[in-house]
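The data layer described in this paper is built around a simple, fixed record for each protein. We quote a single record here, exactly as it is kept in our systems:
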Amino acid sequence: MLLHSALPPAVAPAVAPALAPAVAPALAPALAPARDRDRDRHDAALAVWQSLARTLCAIAAAPEAETGPPAARAAALYDLSSALLLDGGPAFREPVPGALRAALAGHPAAPALDPLLRAVKDHARVRVAVLRPTAPGRGRPEADLPAEPRPVSPARLAGLLRRCADGLGAGVPAPLPPGCPDRFAGLGRDAFARLAAALAPYDEEPPAPPGTPA
């Protein structure tokens, strides 16, 4: 025995599609800003680590009296990497194995490296808080740093960081994961822009470290 539909023939086809055909294309523009933000964060994090690799090697090769500017630049880059991690950016592994150890070992008592040491310790705390699986909504894996054939120009790095700052908007910042340094609390557009501005006095990109394609 055949059961007849409870809906008239003219009604049943009308309720079958979940979305009208024109709705799906209309969603695409709404997804584009999120994709653009992901790309900006990825490119900025990559540029920060590439610049950091060169800066650490520059510290290791510099006379102790000349370590101040590159150490301040490296500290600013570590802080920017921490900020990008907290904003959802990728977590790259150490760009040049041993570069930080070489920079510190070459100048074990240089007071100019104190800000760098603080930034390194804070960055390590941010990485643990962001990458650990117990952090709600986080637990991102580390990624290898892709090879970069050319140095990152200061203008390109500044542009990427400016777009990341604009993407943060002026809304209420997300709370910090447990264990993060308090100085990163309230990280919004203005705070991120101030971190990026710390690079302005050091706008000369150090040469590529040995073994890096030029």
User: Anything to note?
Assistant: Strands lie at 91-92, 142-143.
